Amino acid sequence: MIENVIIDDWVSVCESSDLIPGTGVAVSLGEEQVALFKLRKGDSIYAVSNYDPIGKANVLSRGITGSIGDKVVVSSPLYKQHFDLKTGQCLEDGDVTIRIYPVRVHEGNIQLQYAD
Amino acid sequence: MSKQRIVVVGNGMVGHHYVETLAATDLDVEITVLGGETRPAYDRVHLSEVFDGKKPEELSMTTREHYKSLGVNAHFGDPVAAINRDSKTVTTELGRTFVYDKLVMATGSYAFVPPIPGKDAKHCLTYRTIDDLGEIKASAKGVKRGVVVGGGLLGLECANALKNLGLESHVVEFAPALMGVQLDEGGSKMLRRKIEGLGVYIHTGKATSEIIEGDEHRLRMNFADGEHLETDLIVFSAGIRPYDQLARDAGLEVGERGGIVIDYHCRTTDSDIYAVGECAALGNFIYGLVAPGYRMAEAAVSQLTEEKVSFAGADMSTKLKLLGVEVGSVGDAHGRTEGAQCYSYCDENAEVYKSIVVSKDNKKLLGAVLVGDTSEYDTLLQYMLNEIDLPESPEAFILPSVEGASVALGADALPDTAMVCSCYAVTKGDLCNAVQEGAHTIGAIKEMTSASTGCGGCAALTKQVMDSELLKLGVEVNNDICEHFPHTRQELVDIVRSTKIKTFDEMLEKHGKGHGCEICKPTIGSILASYWNEYVLKEEHIALQDTNDIFLGNMQKDGTYSVVPRIQGGEITPEKLIVLGEVAKEFDLYTKITGGQRIDLFGAQLHELPKIWQKLIDAGFETGHAYGKSLRTAKSCVGSTWCRYGVDDSVGLAINLENRYKGLRTPHKFKLGISGCTRECAEAQSKDIGVIATETGWNLYVCGNGGMRPRHADLFASDLDEKTLVKYIDRFLMFYIRTADRLQRTSVWLENLEGGLDYLKAVIIEDSLNIGDELESEMAVNIDNYQCEWKTTIDNDERLKRFSHFINSPETDNNLRYVKERGQKRPAREDEAEQVIRLVS
User: Fold this and answer.
1) What's the rounded mean pLDDT across residues B248-274?
2) Nearest-by-CA chain B residue for A21
3) Which of B126, B322, B397, B840 could serve as a FRET partner for A75 with CA atoms 20 to 30 Å apart?
4) pTM of whole model > 0.80?
C-alpha cells in the first residue's frame, strides 16, 4: 500500500506496474476519486475524474479505453458515452466535461498533482 | 346512417384476409364472421408440416380474442345453411339468423373425390383440413402402406405427409404425368425421377375402377387396365371443387365448372353479395392459390371505399418445394400461346430440368418450367410479368453458366410496379420507399413491408432491390464493425480461424489501426474466446472485456455488481439454497429470482465479490456467466421424473446441455429451454434453442426470442435421439458464432440469413457446406477448455488486487446510498439520496 506522500505538490498514488495496459484503476486523492488509464505498453498515462456525470456513479475507471479518430477516449461502462482522456470532453454531449488531472511517472510511481 | 353490416361466410385464409383488410380501413362497419370449421382461420398452405412435428395451433392465423379486439363478431363451428336474398339474411345450421347489408362469400373449396365405387369405405380419406390430418394420422397408426389419389401439387404434398408418418407412400394419378397443370412433359418426367428416388412409388395413367377389401392390406384398388394395388389407407387429393352450393341454392349464377361467378369487382350476380377466394370463378377460372385469393379479398374490401380496385385475374406462377424437390412454373409453361417456341435443358446426372417458352419473335418470355433448381425463378418471373425484352440468346437462362456468365436480371431493370413479393403484394417501388425511409437491413425491410415473410421465395430479389437502392441513395453499405477494423464480424472470425491469431494486439497490428474501442475490443475478445477459450482475464485479454466481464459480474446503475451463480436446469439442493440465503444475508444483498430459474444477488461492491465467490465456490457453485455474451440458462420444466404428463427427462437434458455449453462465448447471449412434453411449460419456443420431448424423441426448435421483439422459434428437426440433438446444437451454435454480426441474437441472425431456415437446415442437417466436422471439433475445443472463471480468479492473487474500489486505499465508494423497501435494500433515488444516512461504510 502506498501512503499518500506529498513530494512538492505531486502525490504518489500507486505504482506504475499497477496499471495493466488498456485498463484503468481508481485512486483515492483526498476527497476525490481519480481514474487512471494507460492505453498501451509504453504509452503515457491519463488521469480523469472517476465520476460519470451522466450515469451518476463512480465507474469511469472500469470503462473500455480506445480511440475515436485521433482522440484518446474512455467509454463509460454504464451508458457508453465517450470521454476524451486529454480534455475531459464528452463526445456525445458538448455541455458535459469531466475534470482532468496532471499526471506523471516518477521513480516507478504514478503521481498526480494535487491542486485543491 | 347506421353502421353497415358486413357478414363474411367462411373463415379460411382468404376470408380472414378480408376481415383483416376491412378492419384496417376507417369504415364504420359491423363485421360478422361465420366459420364452418370449429377453428378460426389457419394456414392451409403449410398443412403437411403438422406431420413434420408442427402443432396445429402453430398454423393458426388468428384467434377468437384477436377478432374480439378488432370488434368482430365471430362464430365458429356452425356452418351457414341458407341465404335469403329477399330479407338479406343468412341462417346457420343451428338456426341462428344474421342480417347483412353486404354479404361476402369466402366458403373456399373441398377435396374432390372421384366417383369410384367403394370410395366411401373406411380408411378412404381426404386431405384438406386440420381435422382431416387427425383422421389420416389415426388411420396410419400401425400400418405400412398409404396411397394418395392425385399427382398434383396437393397430392404430392400429401404423399410427403404419409412418408413422414412412416408409411410406404404411393401416388396414383389418372393423367399420364405428375403436376400436369404446372409442368411440361420433360419437367414432369424429371420430377417423377427425383421423387421415386426418394422412395415414393408413382403410378401414372391409372384409372381406379373400384375399391374393395384387400387381402394383405385393408383395401385393394382395382385399375381399369386390370392391375391392382393393395393399401391400408387412401387419401383423395385429386383437385378441389368450390363450395358453391349455398350460392346455387340462393339462385346466384355459378360457372360451367362450378364457382360463384364474379365480375372484376368480385361482385356476384347479386350486387350486395361478393365472393372471394376458391369459391369464386372469374371468367370460368378458379384461382386455387392463396395470393390471388388475397388480391380478391382486397379488391372486394375496396368496393366499400372511395378507392375501388379491380381483380382482373392473377398470375398463377408458382415456386415450391415438394418432398424437398425444388419446382417452379412460370406463366404459359406448356407453350400454348400461338407461335410460342420452347428451349429446354435436361441434366439427368444432376437431375435438373429447365425449359423456357418464348414468343414467336424470340423477344418476350411467356413461360418456364424449373425442376431440381429454381434459382432463376425470380428473374424469369420478372421478365414474364413485366414483358422485359429478352437478351439475344435466351437459352442462356437455362444453360449452366460455364464461364460464370450470368443473365440474372439486375434489380435496376425492373419497373417500380414490378411485384417482388406476391404473398404480400409488395412492389419494387414499395421496397425502394422503405429503404428511403431508413430500412437498411433485410430485417428492417421485412418488418416495414412484410416482403419475403410469407413463402420467402422473393428473399434474394428483395435483397438485390435493397442493395441497389442503397447504392443509389449513396448510402455506403459499410458493414465494418468500427473505424479500427475494415472488416465485418464474420471476416474477423475468418481471420482468427485461418491465421490462428490469439491476441487483440496482434489483430490490431496486422489488420487494424488506432487503439481500438468499446466495439471492436469486446467483439474480438469474444471471437478469441469462442475459438481458443483462454481465461478471459489473462493479461493480454483483460483490456478487451466489458466491465461486466472484467469483474465477472453485472454492473448495476450505481456501479455495484450482481452475482448470479449457475443453477443448472434450475435444479438446486436445499443445502445450496441455504448457502445462497446465508451469503445474501451476510453481505446484505438484494435477492431476486430471475426469469432463467436462478437467483440474482444485487448490490455487491468490488471488494466483496471475491469473498462472496469464495463462499459460493466452497459450496459447489460455479459462475453463471450472467455477465457474458454467452450461455445464460437452460430453463426446464420438471419433466417425466415427477410430472404426470412428462414424456421425457427434461431436467436431466437441461443439466447436460447447460454443462456442455456453459462458458461458450457467442456474438450475443443465448438461452436454452427444454420441455418434457408438448404442454411446453419451459417456454422453449421463446428461446434461441428450444427442445421439446415427444413420444418418439426430441423436437428441436431454433431462433426463438422473448424480450423486446418476441419471435416464435422455428421447428428445426423432429424426433431426434440425444446424440443427434447434441450434434445439431453443436453445429448450430458454432455456425452462429462464425457468421452472425456482433450483438445479433439468433432470431435476427436467422432473419438476415440468406436462404433462411431452409439454408440453415441444409448446412446443419445435410452438411451442405461440408463443415459439419469442423464445427463439431471447434465446439469440442471449447468444451475441453472450460473453466469456472471465478475459481481461476480466486486462485490468482495478481487478479484479486483489482477487486477493490481504489488501488491505493481500502476505502469504498462513498457515493452509494440505499433505502429499505419490502425488507431489502435498494439504491436510493436521486430525490431520496440527500436524506439518506450512509448505510455503507
Assistant:
1) 93
2) B543
3) B840
4) no
